[in-house]
Design goal:
Blueprint: H1 2-25, E1 36-37, H2 45-48, E2 60-65, E3 70-88, E4 96-109, E5 117-123, E6 132-138, E7 141-146, E8 161-163, E9 166-168, E10 172-175, E11 185-189, E12 193-198, E13 204-207
Parallel strand pairs: 1-4
Antiparallel strand pairs: 2-3, 2-13, 3-4, 4-5, 5-6, 6-7, 8-9, 10-11, 11-12, 12-13
């Protein structure tokens, strides 16, 4: 009986000792809550400034609504800066990487419409995909095209688009949130700039 008790105590000790070693050896370090900041990434002007050639930045844009109202937007020159794009790694801590990116664009101010127009390009927020994003923002609508814009004559462009009796060529149809299923979109060309913006509620403003 004593022998059995001694064996049981011995096994219990070995089991406890083994678990202590296992817990120490596999102890996980706490996750670092400080985000990792990546290096600054600057776009190649030869690639992304192509999307800015439609305007000088000091233009006056005039649009007419579906009810005949005229709205004016006045550019204030080129603006540039940096923004933070975030990426979460698929690790145990879901590590947060902060990529500092560059953007350039124009802000067209208005005094008789309910929103300005932001018109800019930036590096893609997903560093693994690279490339550029071209954005036109009005109200809370973000119309954007992912990737650099194709050259004129590319199959992506619409030819012979007729709006209010005017014919436009080399037109891109750009959707809100880059979603072709979204009923909000705008027509845009490198030569004409923004031609028409179509909102979800049926409201439109068209280039004058």
């Amino acid at each position: 009986m004593k022998t059995n008790t001694h064996i049981i105590k011995h096994l219990a000790f070995v089991y406890l000792f083994f678990n202590i070693l296992l817990s120490v050896g596999c102890e996980r370090k706490p996750c670092d809550e400080t985000p990792i900041i990546d290096t600054i990434e600057i776009a190649n002007p030869a690639v992304y400034k192509k999307a800015l050639t439609s305007y000088s930045g000091n233009d006056t844009l005039n649009f007419k609504s579906e009810t005949g109202e005229i709205f004016s937007f006045i550019g204030g020159g080129l603006i540039s800066g940096y923004y933070n794009a975030y990426e979460f790694l698929e690790d145990r801590c879901n590590t947060k990487l902060t990529h500092v990116k560059q953007f350039e664009g124009y802000n067209f101010k208005t005094s008789n419409y309910s929103s300005d127009i932001e018109y800019y390009v930036k590096i893609s927020a997903n560093s693994r995909l690279g490339g550029t994003d071209f954005h036109i923002v009005i109200h809370d609508y973000d119309f954007y095209c992912s990737g650099s814009l194709p050259p004129l004559g590319h199959s992506w462009y619409i030819q012979g688009l007729i709006i209010n009796g005017k014919t436009f060529n080399d037109v891109l149809k750009i959707y809100r949130n880059y979603d072709p299923l979204d009923k909000s979109f705008l027509y845009y060309s490198l030569e004409e700039g923004i031609i028409q913006i179509n909102f979800l509620n049926g409201h439109t403003i068209t280039k004058e």
